[in-house]
Amino acid sequence: MKRILIVEDEVAIREFEAINLKRVGYTVEEAGSGEEALDIYDNDVLGFDIALLDISMPGMDGFTLCKELRKRSETLGIIMLTARTQEMDKISGLMLGADDYITKPFSPTELLARIDSLYRRVEMQNQKVVPQTPDSITLGDFTLNLRRRILLKNGVDIELTQVEFQMMEYFFTNPDVILNRTDILNRVWGSNYFGEEKIVDVNIRRLRKKIEVDPSNPKRLATVWGLGYKWDTSSD
């Protein structure tokens, strides 16, 4: 069962989204406000795979709702919907824990492509078979536990979203290797990802806030200008 929570205050748009998603096999729950969405989510017993959130809503807006949902689940797929074109709105949503965003107006084809892409990543994350060895990878102060799917720094758990964990897994299995945007995008989002490459940069920024002592001067998750990013073990 593929379950999605649609949160949109405009009834016509919400119905449009719900109809198209139901047609391709999603089980849909609808909410007209952020407050209603949290109530549905907190009282649901089956669990949701994806939440589709409008940013501009009266009362609790999409940014606040995204933050609250991410507190409740690190594996929930979250897509933000916005009619705004400002880059900062997109970045703000991603920094709060969203996995992707769609700018209105959008076609049914784009909506379904982005949701299907995210659903596949969520499903892979939840069903992924971890190799028997190694159970974990340790690089300096950090340990990535592949079985429990957590990251530890000096034994302290660092909370990661499912996208962030997949990125860290890619870096930890390729220490000191320069990975460009396309490498990371294909590995984490899939080669059929329907969106912008900048989503990689925003998630790197989000990871640095959780990992680095000084995120503005990163020592571990380093930028190799003009080439990409790498996990730097030189100070281990």
Name the helix and strand elements from N-terminus to C-terminus, one letter apiece.
EHEHEHEHEHEEEEHHHEE
Number of strands: 11
Low-confidence stretches: 129-133
Q: How far is the N terminus from the C terminus?
A: 45 Å
Strand content: 15-25%
Helicity range = 40-55%
On the 0 to 100 scale, the average pLDDT is 88
Structural class from helices and strands?
A: alpha/beta
Q: How would a textbook summarize the main sheet? A: 5 strands, parallel
What spatial form do the alpha-carbon principal axes imply? globular
Figure out the total of helices.
8
Radius of gyration: 18 Å
Strand order of the largest sheet: 2-1-3-4-5
Description:
The structure is a single chain. The protein is α/β, with parallel strands linked by helices. The chain contains eight helices and eleven strands. The strands form three sheets. Strands 2-1-3-4-5 form a five-stranded parallel sheet, sandwiched between helices. It has a four-stranded antiparallel sheet with strand order 6-7-8-9, with helices on one face. It has a two-stranded antiparallel sheet with strand order 10-11.
In short:
The protein is an alpha/beta fold.
Question: Key terms for this structure?
Answer:
single chain; 236 residues; alpha/beta; 8 helices
Topology diagram in text:
Layout: E1 2-7, H1 11-23, E2 26-31, H2 34-43, E3 50-54, H3 62-72, E4 77-82, H4 87-95, E5 100-103, H5 108-127, E6 136-139, E7 142-145, E8 150-153, E9 156-158, H6 162-172, H7 181-189, H8 198-211, E10 221-224, E11 228-231
Parallel strand pairs: 1-2, 1-3, 3-4, 4-5
Antiparallel strand pairs: 6-7, 7-8, 8-9, 10-11
Helix pairs in contact: 2-3, 6-7
